[in-house]
């Protein structure tokens, strides 16, 4: 498993076994089946189906399927000539699957977003749930309210439309589900900071999760007058429900304009005002749409994140970026597994893939006693300092 640089191997497919093979043979076909009607031409759907079958069979990669929207993609795709899908790390394979769907559907030519209906449905379903959740926590004040919004933002991460099975467990069972909670250090850092500075939120899913992310952002802006928040979203559709800039705009507009719930509407007005005075900014760097790990970001972006007060990282994909999606033993110290990542982050993540570090073996044994698939089930979660 070890490599020449003493790092463990990247996570890859083992045919007929494990979460990666399950994703390739079960999740990816399901994802394609749900968006078939979004392709504008039958030839496009056929091309997508051929790509999927090539992935499942581990055949050579047809690089003609893929657009070159950035210089990074041009170089990356050139390196794939002569490789098969089985040669790819799981991280790269997933990225390439979604990049292929966007390329075939025509996103980079004429903006066809095959996942837009899914994200719109997710937003419509989220608002009533959000209102009932807000009623439960708005009686809290200051840091207690912020802590509650962080927990809600964490567990909203289990709503992921790229997964076939969502968690059936109770999000209120905090002690049962959270394997590690290092959020107190994050809040202490904010309380002690007196300088003007930025917090970066690297977002994950639209819909339910983005709604609660914005609740957390609203709480941060109200509690700390010295901070500005920059939400980083994907530059193009990915992983079915990953948030784009338009999703943030649509979500805030929905908070304000539907006028269904007073608490939601008032929060939307505050967020809209924060955007107007540049205390809340939305950015969509191309890096987030490329198969990069956090130690391989564009230099300017890397420096920007390094100079922030704090970074909040949401979800599985961003966690995998921290640890290069490698087969680290789960008790590997964070500073070893994230070596080369130039910034620190609070990772809010419900476990839905194999990559995991910084977890004591006794904790892992307790989790494994409850579920054989505890690392991918979407039941357990971490609030973990990484980097």
What's the CATH topology name of the largest domain? Rossmann fold
Q: Tell me the span between the first and last alpha carbons.
A: 23 Å
Strand order of the largest sheet: 1-7-6-5-2-3-4
The helix/strand order is HHHHHHHHEHEHEHHEHEHHEHE
**CATH homologous superfamily descriptor of the largest domain:** Uncharacterised protein PF01937, DUF89, domain 3
- Helix share bin: 40-55%
Question: What characterizes the major β-sheet?
Answer: 7 strands, mixed
Total number of helices = 16
**CATH architecture grouping of the largest domain:** 3-Layer(aba) Sandwich
Report the average pLDDT across residues. 93
**Integer-rounded radius of gyration:** 20 Å
Count of the separate structural domains: 2
Which runs of at least 5 residues are low in confidence (pLDDT < 50)? 165-169
Strand content: 5-15%
Shape call:
globular
Topology:
Layout: H1 18-34, H2 42-57, H3 71-78, H4 90-105, H5 107-110, H6 116-137, H7 142-155, H8 174-177, E1 178-181, H9 183-192, E2 197-202, H10 208-223, E3 227-232, H11 245-257, H12 262-276, E4 280-283, H13 299-306, E5 310-314, H14 315-322, H15 334-337, E6 345-350, H16 361-370, E7 381-386
Parallel strand pairs: 1-7, 2-3, 2-5, 3-4, 5-6
Antiparallel strand pairs: 6-7
Helix pairs in contact: 1-2, 2-4, 6-10, 6-11, 7-10, 10-12, 11-12
